């Protein structure tokens, strides 16, 4: 694997690309106790500033834990493209009508009886503080061919198809 640390706009572009490609992450709270509490969450959006947005219930354990300690860890995996993302950051909870209207997705109707008007609807914004990614330069198919070729010939792969690094937003 080669290392390519990205900063500013390129870091945000990579964060947006990888998080929106995977869409689902393991959202971990209560980081000071082991095991950490984690649950799958569907990403609504990664905005142009690198914030990640989620819809959540005000009555969820995740919301209670964020109110106590807003440090969170997110793990995104897109196995289909061999893309991975680890994000440590701070979470903030919104209940205002404007934010709910802006971030609402009709898929969230499955969790809220009254839709976006349900009083339990909250929006969570995660602001990344430390982000690390793993990606392939040529895509999963080419990388897989490289590994198959190495296995068939008895040679090792040089891992040059992969790239990893920090995303400094």
Radius of gyration: 18 Å
Order of helices and strands: EEHEEEEHEEHEHE
N/C terminus separation: 22 Å
Q: Report the portion of residues in β strands.
A: 35-45%
Number of strands: 10
CATH architecture: Roll
CATH topology: Pnp Oxidase, Chain A
Runs in which pLDDT lies below 50 for 5 or more consecutive residues are 140-150
**In total, how many domains does the architecture comprise?**
1
Task: Count up the helices.
Answer: 4
Class derived from helix and strand content: alpha+beta
Biggest beta sheet attributes: 10 strands, mixed
Task: Please describe the structure with a list of short key phrases separated by commas or semicolons.
single chain; 169 residues; alpha+beta; Pnp Oxidase, Chain A; 10-stranded mixed beta sheet; 4 helices; 40% strand; YdaG_split_barrel_FMN-bd; Split_barrel_FMN-bd
Please provide a written account of the structure.
This protein is of the alpha+beta class and 169 residues long. It has a single domain (2-168), classed as Pnp Oxidase, Chain A (Roll). 26% of the residues lie in helices and 40% in strands. It contains four helices and ten strands; from the N terminus they run ββαββββαββαβαβ. It has helices spanning 8-22, 61-68, 97-103, 140-153, and strands at 2-3, 6-7, 24-29, 37-42, 45-46, 52-57, 71-78, 83-94, 121-136, 162-168. Strands 1, 2, 3, 4, 5, 6, 7, 8, 9 and 10 form a ten-stranded mixed beta sheet that branches. A hairpin with a 7-residue loop joins β3 and β4 (37-42). The longest helix is centred in the N-terminal third of the chain and has 15 residues, at 8-22.
